[in-house]
From TrEMBL:
Signal found in the keyword field: yes
Start and end residues of each Amidohydrolase-related domain: 311-398
Protein name per Swiss-Prot or TrEMBL: Amidohydrolase
Pfam families: Amidohydro_1
Alphabetized UniProt keyword annotations: Hydrolase, Signal
Length: 461
């Protein structure tokens, strides 16, 4: 009976029924007219049109014409901005901590993308078009991440992958790996010193692996080293082919990892959370390191006790490429509000604030040649708001991914959200007999654990 209830509860949810309006055969040619266009990297253009052809931005200007049959959307009084990019997300994946060893570079979250996750659609309703799906932070060196487009309505997981996006990998410093491995399993690392040792040992082994492989390829060794997927990935980090994305909080550990990377020649990396980044902003800028932060979220555990809502602004003012991320299936629906908070506290300009959720995360992920700004030739990932996106009153009206309308508030399918009357009576879904009570309590437990446990364990904050 419980299995039936759970199946009905999770798989029979109306949110999982998809409308034909969201499927892949939708048009990717559009003429958006009469909008205020926030390019982010250039000027904000009044009364401007955008012509989209074959999913890319073909032309930007006034009084544009389009080939016959091209659909037109009148955006008079509205604001068009680049699709929002979430640099740190765990939507569309689950069980993202391979906590069986301190180093697990051989696994990747891209192998388990769930295209049916309704959070993809909900993110679209907040103008988010690209997400960086990350491994959790139980491991010092975790698995590979995946950059996806929010092509909700596609049923093939591979259809969500952003082709050509650089590979990235998750590192983690501090309490999470020391708690899971040292305290939990009595293996290194138990201390913050041990975290550094694990990283140095892993990169040293990778350097030797790469040297042995090169020696064989050059004819200087009779055989290659035994193949190791883990070593292949770590060697590619040293070669600059895999970008490091590192969970971090404390300034001392941030300085430590930058020193390690100096010693091993690793140059392209971004720190995530980085709540004490404001203490070492000049050092981060000197290393050309990125910082992906929360706007005003801290104190949820001891090592995050010290932070400031001025963090993003201080980092920006010091020349650090800074983004604001969600790390939450709820927060990513209003990242534009999070960017506005950084403006409120730190006095950032409109362009600086919106860069935190567009071009800057694109740079951190190595995809800024395709997304993050409104420019001719870039992917037509666009979000249309009925007010300036930094306004608390702004509401997303349409979201395009590769020129395809993936969210349209005016034509939001009935099966994508429920409009409930709080005054109406609700018929109980369970038989509150003794047996039904047990089943109901089981479901309550499932809800409680999924709401509490998923956020902190799977994301690994």
């Amino acid at each position: 009976m419980l299995a039936v209830l759970l199946t009905t509860f999770f798989l029979g949810s109306p949110a999982h029924a998809q409308s034909d309006k969201l499927r892949a055969n939708a048009p990717d040619d559009w003429l958006i007219t009469n909008a205020t266009v926030i390019t982010v990297t250039g000027e904000t253009l009044e009364n401007t049109d955008i012509l989209v052809r074959d999913g890319t931005i073909d032309e930007i200007g006034s009084d544009l014409s389009a080939p016959g049959g091209t659909e037109t959307y009148d955006a008079s009084g509205m604001f068009v901005m680049p699709g929002i990019i979430d640099a740190h997300s765990h939507i569309a994946v689950s069980s993202v901590n391979e906590a069986t060893a301190p180093v697990t570079a051989e696994v990747g979250v891209g192998d388990v993308i769930n295209p049916y996750d309704v959070n993809l659609y909900r993110a679209l309703a907040g103008g988010v078009t690209t997400s960086h799906l990350m491994h959790g932070s139980a491991n010092v060196i975790g698995g590979r991440n995946e950059t996806i487009k929010h092509r909700y309505g596609q049923t093939d997981p591979d259809a969500l992958r952003m082709d050509g996006a650089p590979r990235t990998i998750k590192f983690a410093l501090g309490e999470n790996p020391t708690r899971v491995h040292g305290e939990g399993n009595d293996v290194v690392p138990r201390t913050r010193m041990g975290v550094e040792r694990v990283i140095r040992d892993a990169l040293t082994k990778a350097r030797r692996y790469a040297a042995e492989k090169e020696a064989y390829e050059n004819g200087d060794a009779p055989a290659p080293p035994p193949h190791s997927e883990k070593m292949e990935v770590l060697a590619d980090i040293l070669a600059g082919e895999v970008l490091v994305q590192c969970h971090s909080y404390r300034a001392d550990e941030i300085l430590m990892l930058m020193q390690v990377f100096d010693d091993f020649g690793v140059e392209n990396f971004t720190f995530h959370h980085v709540n004490e980044g404001f203490k070492v902003a000049p050092e981060l800028a000197k290393h050309n390191a990125g910082a992906s932060v929360f706007s005003d979220w801290w104190a949820y555990k001891f090592e995050v006790y010290y932070s400031t809502a001025y963090n993003a602004a201080i980092l920006t003012d010091n020349g650090v490429t800074t983004s604001i991320n969600s790390d939450s299936p709820e927060l990513n629906r209003h990242l534009y509000h999070e960017a506005a908070k950084a403006q409120k506290y730190g006095g950032l300009t409109d362009q600086e604030a919106l860069s935190l959720i567009t071009i800057n995360p694109a740079k951190q992920l190595g995809i800024d040649d395709r997304v993050g700004s409104i420019e001719v030739g870039k992917d037509a990932d666009l979000a249309i708001f009925d007010a300036h996106p930094l306004s608390v009153y702004a509401v997303a009206q349409r979201t395009y991914v590769d020129g395809v309308v993936r969210f349209d508030r005016e034509n939001d399918p009935d099966d994508m959200r429920l409009r409930l009357d709080p005054e109406a009576s609700v018929e109980s879904a369970f038989d509150w007999s003794e047996t039904g009570t047990r089943h109901g309590r089981c479901l309550q437990d499932v809800g409680r654990y999924s709401s509490q446990g998923t956020t902190f364990w799977q994301s690994g904050r």
